[in-house]
Specification:
By secondary structure, the chain is mainly alpha-helical. The chain is built from one helix and no strands.
Length: 88
């Protein structure tokens, strides 16, 4: 075999191998991008849920304070009714 024949065979084998490697690399990068997008989307949803949870906790705290105030007022009014001789 002379050098020209070896070069031609290497070119015939190397071309498809290089193309296959490029296709595999493209597929792998697309898969990684999809996974990255999925993780980013998951992180965004998690952050939104945490923010909503924080807001709901604040709202619950406010409602509990309002309920406690209403109960105190009801108790005060019941005592006032008793003091005035009535039955609550």
């Amino acid at each position: 075999m002379d050098a020209a024949l070896v070069t031609a065979i290497a070119a015939l084998i190397g071309g498809p191998v290089a193309a296959a490697a490029a296709m595999y690399g493209t597929r792998a990068s697309r898969a990684a991008a999809r996974e990255g997008n999925a993780l980013t989307g998951y992180d965004n949803l998690t952050n939104q849920l945490q923010e909503e949870r924080k807001e709901l906790r604040e709202e619950l705290r406010t409602l509990r304070l309002e309920l406690a105030a209403e109960r105190m007022e009801t108790g005060r009014l019941k005592q006032l009714v008793k003091d005035l001789g009535g039955t609550p």
